[in-house]
Amino acid sequence: MFEQLEKINTRPEPFEFYTAADLWTDEHTSEQMLRFHLNPEIDVSSRNVNFIDRSVDWIASRFNIGAGKKIADFGCGPGLYATRLARRHADVTGIDFSKRSIRHAQETADREGLSIHYINRDYLDFETDDRFHLILMIMCDFCALSPAQRRKILSIFHLLLEPSGFVLLDVYSLTAFSEREERAQYEVNLLDGFWSSHRYYGFLNTFKYEKEKVVLDKYTIVEAERSRAIYNWLQYFSPDGLEREFKESGFAVENYYLDVAGTPFSPHGKEFAVVAKKL
To answer: Are residues 158 and 270 in the same domain?
Structure first.
């Protein structure tokens, strides 16, 4: 038992383990994530519905969205952005790891008669001959990727964009990083049964990496028949640091905003958004 507790509380190296599939493809947790996505009042898996509507209005204006515009939504979830953009006659492709979310998104598109191309895949492995005018990665997905994964996804973006195409994504700021604290928590059925439909013991260890500006929420879930660890990594950014990564991948940063609804940038915000142009 002591050795097991030692293992649970051991600090890994930054991005040493990657367990995204355990969150997005597990039958039970993917159902919980979809439920959060579809709750219009909360900001958990997706923004609340009022923000999404305001965000899509701004995106449509900022990037002149309409017929003939081709958009790729990386991490599209159940299509909350893709659906609204397709209603404005854009040609939208949505990519997501969660089969359950993609199924919901496709059902919505079919019901409304929208021509949206949904793909159930890890977007780090996404390939297509299509080329896009705009690529979206919203809800700070970029922060969950390791430095190597971020280089890979930016190279994918660069390849898939039309000349002078744009990327819009949002990230967590250093202000948000400064507010995170290390902690250890234990609870029966941690997060109200989020991790399993069966009884389990949940351990949450939050590790903070000052040099790298990374935070790990490590969940260890112990059930009668199995134990598993889920690693939720988050990279926090300064505008300069984010711009450096884009420049190294062949992009020029055009604008920073407080969010993906075009709110003016503030250095004190917990998040910020970036518009970058392919060179």
So the answer is: yes
Please tell me whether residues 244 and 230 are part of one structural domain. Answer: no
Q: Is residue 96 domain-shared with residue 222, that is, in the same domain?
A: no
Cα 180 from Cα 205, distance rounded (Å): 12
Per residue in 110-146, pLDDT (tens digit) is 999 998 999 999 999 999 999 999 999 999 999 999 9
Q: Max alpha carbon distance in the chain (Å)? A: 62
The packing angle between helices 49-62 and 80-87, to 10°, is 50
Regarding beta strands 132-137 and 271-278, do their DSSP bridges make them parallel or antiparallel, or are they unpaired? unpaired
* Alpha carbons 180 and 213: distance in angstroms, whole number: 11
Do 103 and 196 reside in the same domain of the chain?
Answer: no
pTM for the complete prediction? Answer: 0.94
pLDDT band at 43 (very low <50, low <70, confident <90, very high): low
Domain count, the chain: 2
Long-range contact pairs involving 38-47 (C-beta distance under 8 Å, separation at least 24)? 38/78, 38/104, 45/77, 45/139, 46/77, 46/78, 46/80, 46/139, 47/138, 47/139
192 and 219 assigned to the same domain: yes
d(CA 265, CA 238): 12
Length of the chain: 279
Q: Do 96 and 224 share a structural domain? A: no
Residues 70-96: tens digit of each pLDDT: 999 999 999 999 999 999 999 999 999
pLDDT digits (tens, 9 = 90+) for 225-250: 999 999 999 999 999 999 999 999 99
